[in-house]
Design goal:
The chain is mainly α. It has 11 helices and 5 strands; from the N terminus they run αααααααβαββαββαα. The protein is 63% helix and 7% strand. β4 and β5 form a beta hairpin.
Length: 372
């Protein structure tokens, strides 16, 4: 297996050999030109080698190279040459300065290298901790997503049990009764025309209910998949409201509907059909949960910038405080939490679909308690 350069240099003996070899190379290369070059040039060349050793190999090899450079500088380049004696006091000062400079430079370079290595290790530790933290968050997010998924599956199962089985049971019961009536022998009790008509009405209503639930599920899936085909055009606010009122007319016959529209409202760029559907959903909810012969109010006002605020308010008791944050959740029904078996029922999809439609068009939807 081949060794990398770093692995080779990490070997202790080779690190010192490189340090010594570098100094020796400079000394024996420049020594033949001793007469042509001055001692300053030699000292700079030796200092350069010491700095390189300190930077790339380490402090201890740099100290060894400093000592060797000091000895070689004295022996080969300072008069008297090839002796350990320094004749000129100025050269003695120069030699001392070189020695101190070499040692200090080597120490500083090695210190800088250690700081850089510490910084690198610190950065790597921070990255490691960050990755661990991110991994922990991802695990926690996955756990939360799994919990919500299980909750959604449970809610979906409840919805399927209630909203599919209930109408199917009613349809099955009605059909069975009508079929049995056909088989009853003469002289025994039989359904009259009115009774048969009532059973046909049950079948018709429960079929519509079943169809409404399935359509809601399909629409919600499209919204969550981002496949809601919107046709946004400039539309009149009055037309959007009237379309919702016409559709909700049978539901509102026992209520007083009030329209409070700000004057000179501008055109609004929306998908008028789906926005009208949102208003219908809010009106339908109001008709289910507020007392008859009370008022339901529709208002539209400017909300700053190019936004308009549509509001549907009523005189009902409102949603219990502990349930308010869930009103736009899928399959959430206040009737299931009230304990009242005669409370209005629904699919629990209407407000979730309304929220998806509004947000798909760049808007927001929320509930607030009406101030009287």
């Amino acid at each position: 297996m081949k060794e990398s350069v770093k692995e080779i240099i990490d070997k202790s003996w080779l690190r010192y050999a490189v340090a010594v070899g570098g100094i020796a190379l400079v000394i024996f290369t420049l020594e033949p030109f001793n007469a042509e070059i001055n001692s300053t040039t030699v000292s700079f060349a030796l200092l350069l080698v010491i700095l390189l050793v300190a930077t790339f190999i380490g402090r201890n090899p740099a100290l060894v190279s400093s000592l060797l450079a000091m000895l070689g500088f004295n022996y080969y380049f300072l008069p008297l040459v090839r002796t350990w004696t320094i004749a000129d006091p100025q050269n003695l000062v120069a030699w001392a300065a070189f020695t101190v400079t070499a040692i200090v430079a080597g120490e500083l370079s090695a210190y800088a290298k250690r700081r850089a290595e510490d910084a690198t290790r610190g950065k790597q530790e921070i990255e490691r901790l960050y990755n661990e933290l991110q991994s922990s968050f991802e695990i926690a997010s996955e756990a939360e997503a799994l919990r919500r998924s299980e909750k959604l599956k449970s809610a979906l199962l409840d919805a399927v049990t209630h909203d599919l089985r209930t109408p199917l049971t009613s349809i099955k019961t009605s059909i069975t009764t009508l079929l049995d009536d056909e088989k009853i022998v003469a002289g025994r009790f039989q359904l009259d025309a009115e009774g048969r008509h009532e059973f046909f009405e049950i079948i018709d209503e429960e079929t519509d209910r079943l169809n409404h639930f399935i359509e809601g599920m399909v629409q919600l899936v499209r919204i969550e998949a981002g496949e809601l085909n919107l046709r946004q055009t400039w539309s009149e606010v009055d037309e959007i409201i009237q379309a919702a009122l016409v559709r909700a007319e049978p539901l509102l016959e026992n209520y007083q509907v009030k329209l409070l529209l700000e004057k000179d409202l501008p055109l609004v760029r929306v998908d008028s059909k789906t926005l009208s559907e949102v208003l219908y959903t809010l009106l339908e909810n109001a008709s289910k949960y507020v007392p008859k012969n009370t008022s339901i109010e529709i208002s539209v006002n400017r909300a700053g910038g190019e936004m308009l605020e549509f509001s549907v308010s009523d005189e009902g008791g409102g949603v219990p405080e502990n349930l308010r944050e869930h009103v736009f959740d899928k399959f959430f029904r206040v009737s299931e939490t009230s304990g009242d078996e005669y409370a209005p029922t629904g699919t629990g999809l209407g407000l979730a679909i309304a929220k998806g439609i509004v947000e798909a068009q760049g808007g927001k939807i929320w509930r607030r308690r009406r101030q009287f």
